[in-house]
Amino acid sequence: MVLDLDRAEHAAYADAFRAAPETAETTEIAGATCIVVRGLGSRMFNRVLDLTSTDPLDEIGDFYGTEPWWVSDAYGLGPKLEQRGFVGDYGWMKFSRGVSPRRARSELDVRRVDAAQAQDFARVVVDAYGMPEWTAPLAANVVGRQGWSCYVAYADGEPAGAGALFVQDDVGWLGFAATREQYRGRGAQSAILAARIEDARQQGCGTVTTETGELQEGRPSSSYRNIVRAGFREVGVRPNYRAP
Fold first, then answer.
1. From CA 204, how far away is CA 51, in angstroms rounded?
2. Planar angle of CA 205, 208, 212, nearest 5 degrees
3. Quick one: residue 41, left, alpha or beta (phi over 0 = left, psi -120 to 50 = alpha)?
């Protein structure tokens, strides 16, 4: 089950990166998917997905070059990675739930958007995560793309919150969750979560999954609380290892 959840997440990231070649790169090496946004140095974006063996690490390292990069370890390679000099980093808690309805209220206007509103969606993601403007295609280009459903919460016509659903087989992955700082605390994420869960149900999914950073002392996480409040259960922490 955990691998099914990881596959949905990994498929979503790979598809989003392929949709934004002006910003991101992706390549396949020995069955692993390597994604990177050069110049950003981000644990979220510079990752190796679905790595099942440490054998291709040298070739993977050549692909990343001087960029920092991480392995999202879904296959228990931790001890072997550490032998190669990798260091355990901040892990991500995986969550799942069924598609029973989730009730949520917000004063904001939550809408499913298409390509005409792609810049609204990207504006929220870029602003909320403090990303440089040149990364906007990574969010904008999934809006209206096959397999994706994207939502924006508006406050008096201004894009305030965002979130996306990506469907693979019968699993829906929820990502790109973001709220611009000045609009936080107004229920945007709860409402967008509810909308995406219902969307997944209507598309025939039996499970929805998402992830956020694991709980650690000194690292408050409103995302973690929102996810649990929406009825998700903790599946387990997936480790991340930083390359030497």
1. 29
2. 160
3. left
What is the C-alpha separation between 211 and 4, in angstroms, rounded?
A: 13
Beta bridge partners of 124: none
pLDDT digits (tens, 9 = 90+) for 9-60: 999 999 999 999 999 999 999 999 999 999 999 999 999 999 999 999 999 9
| 174 and 163 Cβ atoms separated by less than 8 Å | yes
Please list, residue by residue across 46-66, b when 16 or more beta carbons sit within 10 angstroms of its beta carbon and e when fewer do. Answer: bbbbbbeebebbeebeebbee
Q: Number of C-alpha atoms within 13 angstroms, CB side, residue 169?
A: 10
Instruction: Please check whether residue 180 is in contact with residue 130, taking contact to mean a CB–CB distance below 8 angstroms.
Output: no
Domains and CATH numbers, the chain: 2-92 (no CATH), 97-237 (3.40.630.30)
Q: Widest CA span of the chain, in angstroms?
A: 54
Q: In whole angstroms, give the CA distance from residue 58 to residue 6.
A: 24
Helix or strand or coil: residue 35? strand
Instruction: Flag whether the pTM goes above 0.90.
Output: yes
